[in-house]
Design brief:
This protein is an all-alpha fold and 267 residues long. The protein contains 18 helices and no strands.
């Protein structure tokens, strides 16, 4: 059992098998016990918060800063201040994007306690948490997941995507295909099998999008990423990478993400 909604016991044991072994051996009473006693600056407490990514995205939160403020780790900072400040703790949770789509009554609570805390308290598949994950499309694509949520196995499509034990079998949105990406980047299969990456999408979000690797057959980021409007948007920090630009700006406007056939050289 988890001690509260802010720490996922089962996910932590699954993600860190070394901790699970120590719990089985009686070294710790639980994963939460191990997390509280040490190593919590190297491990994440919840499937929707990435300690290493939070520290990477917020270089001002150095160990010295945490120590002087008597904070245990990045998650402690995030829960006390970062969530309300709009700092990102996971690539699939964008505070501003989520807040803009929340109904007003839930938006009020989210501003009061933080969007992350509000989502964990009131998860809903009707409100996407990021342009990088489409819960409505996901449930339509995988009706068995929708049924498992109705049966109480999972609380949301996002939880299922982040926690299911066959992560390469599910696509997060129609613009990313695990099969396509892994076929084009076969070396990742060994890395995923070793447990160093959850799936192809994890690699794509961390590296592939900026490297302009193709996420799906209909998206050519090598072509799209060099378009002047895209480069300008990234330089102005309107978006973080070509894929993010496509999802936020050009896809809603009905634009394509690959070179039109009539524009190709020799045609």
């Amino acid at each position: 059992h988890s001690p509260n909604r802010l720490f996922d016991e089962a996910w932590h044991l699954s993600t860190y098998p070394g901790i699970a072994e120590l719990v089985r051996a009686g070294e710790y009473a639980s994963a939460f016990d191990a997390y509280c006693r040490g190593g919590n600056r190297d491990r994440s407490p919840h499937w929707l918060f990435d300690e290493a990514e939070y520290r990477r995205l917020n270089p001002d939160i150095a160990d010295s800063v945490l120590d002087s403020a008597q904070l245990a780790n990045g998650y402690d900072h995030f829960l006390r201040a970062g969530d309300k400040e709009g700092r990102r703790g996971h690539p699939l949770f964008d505070h501003a994007y989520y807040l803009a789509r929340l109904p007003e009554d839930k938006r009020t609570l989210a501003r009061e306690i933080g969007p992350f805390a509000q989502f964990l308290r009131q998860p809903s598949d009707k409100v996407p948490t990021s342009p990088l994950f489409d819960p409505i499309w996901y449930l339509g694509r995988y009706p068995a997941v929708a049924q498992s949520i109705a049966d109480g196995v999972w609380r949301s499509a996002l939880e299922h995507y982040c926690c299911n034990d066959t992560p390469t079998e599910f696509d997060p949105l129609p613009d990313f295909s695990e099969d396509w990406y892994l076929a084009r980047n076969p070396a990742l299969k060994e890395i995923i099998a070793a447990g160093d990456l959850r799936n192809g999408y994890a690699h794509f979000l961390r590296h592939g999008a900026r490297e302009m690797r193709s996420p799906a057959p209909h998206i050519d980021l090598e072509w799209y990423g060099v378009q002047e409007s895209v480069r300008r948007g990234i330089l102005r920090r309107e978006t973080t990478d070509p894929f993010d630009h496509w999802l936020r700006i050009c896809k809603p406007a009905g634009h394509v993400a690959s070179e039109p056939p009539t524009d190709r050289i020799g045609q």
